[in-house]
Design brief:
Elements: H1 5-11, H2 29-34, H3 39-50, H4 56-61, E1 69-70, H5 79-83, H6 99-110, H7 118-143, H8 165-179, H9 197-210, H10 214-224, E2 249-253, E3 280-281, H11 283-288, H12 314-319, E4 320-321, E5 326-327, E6 330-331, E7 356-357, E8 377-381, H13 382-395, H14 401-414, H15 427-441, H16 448-455, H17 458-461, E9 464-474, E10 481-493, H18 507-512
Antiparallel strand pairs: 1-3, 2-8, 4-7, 5-6, 9-10
Helix pairs in contact: 1-3, 3-6, 3-7, 6-7, 7-8, 7-9, 8-9, 9-10, 10-13, 13-14, 13-15
Length: 522
């Protein structure tokens, strides 16, 4: 939610973490005793649980762990997630921290104490239980078995072993099933950004589809589809600040310029406009977009490898800054930089693949300062629900009119033709279509790695050379391309299916908590 008056109060509830892996009560006893008296205390404590629940950083960087994108700077801790070279001591991102879960557990242990409206108390409890379930969803999908901590731990109780992932998944689903009816479908404008019934059900559907429980996921999606969400008419407009909180958004991270700013958008643009070029989409992603005739680039007669960005799905141009496109008043030219040996290289601030993200930064003039914005980070949106519904029905081999309707609504919104039923008329072809559709529709929104894991396609899409755009020249006056046959080569990745579907547990976690065992292969 927009954090104006509560922001200062929030700081009183965020305390430093101890060195123990499973942090105990985050507030000292006198402070805890003094802070649970009024409704205002309860609201401030709830806001403390929202703090850091997710971020724009994670939304835009997470695809760097997948075949969709490349992170050129190791110190940003995303490059190693995709290379296959992560270890317990060089682990990249760490989602095994429990400070946010501790904060939620502390809230739930004390929320019965304030004198307050009971209906509000019930709702706040449901919000915090959602946030705790969210953190467990990330942990169990990234690491498998993880300790399941549902209460504030005592001093001698923090050395807990890993709980089987099936038990953690069941806990998540049980929590979300119980709290969804307790949450409102929408809030007044002053409370926008809080957890809704739709958000709880969407996370539930994500957990169900990750478990391959397709019947349950389809049923959950049907519940969400009755809540009034609608696809926003303009795909590109979805990610503009003028349209924050539009009809498609189910859950987002809220930001306030200057006060609780979104300071991350500047990592995406090229150096020529003041950006960092931290996220470099791959050729693999660019190739996934169909041509405007609804056929893949391998099938379409309108695809020309020397004019590869013409006659393509409009979502490509809405998602990627590519060679020859007009961006910030100039035709983008990342492909003619060479070192003395003739090999492509990209100094700081240039994309090593020749591509940049375009979502959220289509027009930098939308912001006074791209490093200080009120642009919200979309974490859940209605198109994902439609895609989960269609995928679940396809996996159940219940391919009926509702499946085509769901996919067609997404495709036509983007400016693409409806599904060709003469081609996509069986489970195998429809599975191929929905997976491609999900990849391009949700590209660079942080979901691709999770899809790779649940589809078990890592050994197919992750290892080997990572490529970027074809080299050549860009006419600075017209944007016309003159491409060679030489393609940018970025790095070589490894993928062991016996190992890499799970991330390594940081060695510091194992050292602090001896009961924790490392994932296989690390």
């Amino acid at each position: 939610m927009k954090k104006y008056s509560l922001y200062a109060i929030l700081l009183l509830f965020i305390t430093s973490c101890s060195s123990d892996f499973l942090d105990r009560n985050p507030l000292d006893q006198p402070s805890n005793e003094a802070s649970w008296n009024t409704e205002k205390d309860a609201l401030a404590a709830t806001t403390g649980c929202y703090e850091g629940w997710f971020s724009m950083d994670e939304v835009v960087y997470f695809d760097c762990a997948s075949d969709n994108s490349y992170n050129p700077y190791p110190w940003e801790n995303w490059q190693v997630q995709a290379t296959g070279y992560a270890t317990a001591n060089d682990f990249g991102q760490n989602y095994m921290k429990y400070d946010k879960i501790v904060r939620c557990n502390n809230f739930l242990a004390n929320i019965d104490r304030p004198t307050m409206d009971e209906e509000l108390r019930t709702r706040l409890i449901a919000e915090v239980r959602f946030l705790r379930a969210w953190h467990y969803f990330l942990k169990v999908t990234l690491y498998g078995d993880v300790p399941l901590v549902k209460e504030v731990l005592g001093v001698n109780d923090s050395n807990l072993p890993r709980t089987p992932k099936e038990e953690v998944q069941k806990f998540i689903l049980d929590e979300l099933t119980e709290i969804a009816p307790l949450l409102p479908e929408k809030y007044a404008s002053s409370d926008v950004g809080r957890v809704t019934k739709g958000a709880a059900l969407t996370l539930k559907a994500r957990m169900e589809i990750f478990k391959s429980d397709y019947a349950a996921c389809a049923a959950t999606c049907e519940q969400i589809m009755k809540l009034g969400y609608q696809l926003f008419p303009d795909y590109k407009g979805l990610f503009k600040i003028a349209n924050v909180g539009n009809s498609e958004v189910i859950m987002d991270v809220q930001y306030v310029e200057n006060l609780a700013k979104n300071g991350i958008l500047g990592v995406m643009p090229p150096a020529s406009v003041g950006g960092w070029s931290s996220i470099n989409p791959t050729q693999s992603l660019a190739d996934a977009y169909e041509c405007i005739d609804g056929k893949t680039i391998a099938e379409s007669s309108v695809y020309d490898k020397k004019e590869p960005y013409q006659h393509r799905d409009p979502r490509l141009a809405a998602t990627l800054i590519y060679p020859g496109c007009l961006y910030e008043g100039n035709y983008f030219n990342p492909i003619d930089v060479k070192d003395p040996t003739g090999d492509y290289y990209a100094p700081y601030g240039r994309s090593k693949t020749g591509y940049h993200p375009r979502k959220y930064i289509d027009n930098l003039g939308d912001y006074d300062d791209m490093w200080n914005t009120a642009m919200n980070a979309i974490v859940m949106r209605y198109a994902e629900v439609l895609l989960m519904y269609a995928e679940s029905k396809i996996e159940l081999n219940q391919i009926d009119a509702s499946v085509y309707e769901a996919l067609n609504s997404i495709r036509t919104r983007a400016g693409m033709p409806e599904v060709d039923k003469a081609v996509y008329n069986n489970q195998v072809k429809m599975r191929e279509l929905v997976r491609r559709e999900r990849r391009v529709e949700m590209a660079l929104e942080g979901l691709r790695w999770f899809d790779i894991c649940r589809w078990k396609i890592g050994e197919e899409v992750m290892p080997g050379r990572v490529y970027g755009a074809l080299l050549g020249t860009v006419d600075p006056e017209t944007g016309a391309l003159n491409l060679t046959d030489n393609r940018i080569e970025v790095e070589t990745r490894l993928f062991d299916p016996a190992k890499h579907y799970l991330w390594p547990i940081p060695q510091s976690v194992i050292d602090a908590t001896p009961a924790i065992e490392q994932n296989p292969g690390y």
